[in-house]
Amino acid sequence: MPVDMLISINVRVIRLTIRFLLDTHKTRIENVIKAHHSHEIQFELPVTCLITREKN
């Protein structure tokens, strides 16, 4: 198996895992954000950066 193929599979798995985790914990995360509104920016930015970096 070529290395780049393995990497693309890994990226896909990681992306699915992130999406799954975000979906399962979405309501909990939203509650936490509502409770600690100042932490919203600290949480949102790294995740957004990771997702946009993977798309490019």
Structure explained in plain terms:
This protein is mainly α. The protein has one domain (3-55). 88% of the residues lie in helices and 0% in strands. It is built from three helices and no strands. Helix 1 packs across helix 2. It is rod-shaped, with a radius of gyration of 14 Å. The two termini are 23 Å apart. The model has no long low-confidence stretch (mean pLDDT 70).
Features:
single chain, 56 residues, 88% helix, 0% strand, rod-shaped
SSE layout:
Blueprint: H1 3-24, H2 26-35, H3 39-55
Helix pairs in contact: 1-2
Oligomer: single chain
Q: Treating each run of at least 4 consecutive H or I residues as one helix, how many helices? A: 3
**What overall geometry do the principal axes of the alpha carbons give?**
rod-shaped
Mean of pLDDT: 70
| Beta-strand proportion | under 5%
Strand count? 0
| Element-by-element helix/strand order | HHH
Domain count: the total is 1
Largest sheet, strands/sense/barrel = none
Low-pLDDT segments, ≥5 res? none
Structural class: mainly alpha
Brief summary:
By secondary structure, the protein is mainly alpha-helical.
